[in-house]
Amino acid sequence: MSMGWNAVYAIFNGVMGIIYHSFWFVSMFAYYMVLSVMRFIVVSSKYKKLRRSESRMMKMIGGGMIFLAIVVSGIVCMGIAEKHNPKYHIIIMITIAAYTFYIVILAIISFVKAQKRKNPSMIMLRNISMACAIVALLSLERSMLGTFGDAGDRFSMTMTIISGAVAVLLVVVIGVSMLIQAGRVEEKILPDSK
């Protein structure tokens, strides 16, 4: 279900990108679509029950997270260089806020489930949910600064820089942790196969 909402929100961002001619929304469309594909890969492989491919999948998704962090850093830098956050209609702001609260709650639920079950698929889904929530919060902040504040003032620029740096750093940490966890999964698999 969360994969479906991710895809719907990605499409919403794509449509808003076209309507507002916004590079930010188009970039968020691409970001959420990549996360939806990652989530689909994890969910579809869960039914195949291939233990050897779990470590490979974790490496792929971890590397993808690091790539996405680099992309987000570029998006944030372009947003800072523009010195302009467009004002959005109140319904669009409510949609962004509702999705952000939904995805943050989902990330917390995924975190708790992964702590209880501790299997690789749950860990991957948890990390994808966390990366999604982090960037959703960044997007909500940027949209609120443009709609309810002055995006060109020093406070808004400082908030964008700090929030963007923290978001990029957290997504990189998620990606690196997945690469480390993939190594641990491989270590468990190798003794089992002997």
DSSP strand count? 0
Kindly state the mean pLDDT as a whole number? 83
Number of helices: 6
Number of domains: 1
The main β sheet shows up as:
none
Uncertain runs are none
Tell me the structural class.
mainly alpha
String of helices and strands:
HHHHHH
Which strand-content bin applies to the residues?
Answer: under 5%
How far do the termini sit from each other? 38 Å
| Fraction of residues in helix | over 70%
Taking Cα atoms only, what radius of gyration do you get, to the nearest Å?
Answer: 18 Å
Name the overall outline.
Answer: globular
Report on the architecture of this protein.
This protein is mostly helical. The protein has one domain (2-38, 54-193). 89% of the residues lie in helices and 0% in strands. The chain is globular, with a radius of gyration of 18 Å.
Task: Describe the secondary structure blueprint for this structure.
Layout: H1 2-20, H2 23-46, H3 51-82, H4 90-117, H5 120-148, H6 154-193
Helix pairs in contact: 1-2, 2-3, 2-5, 3-5, 3-6, 4-5, 5-6
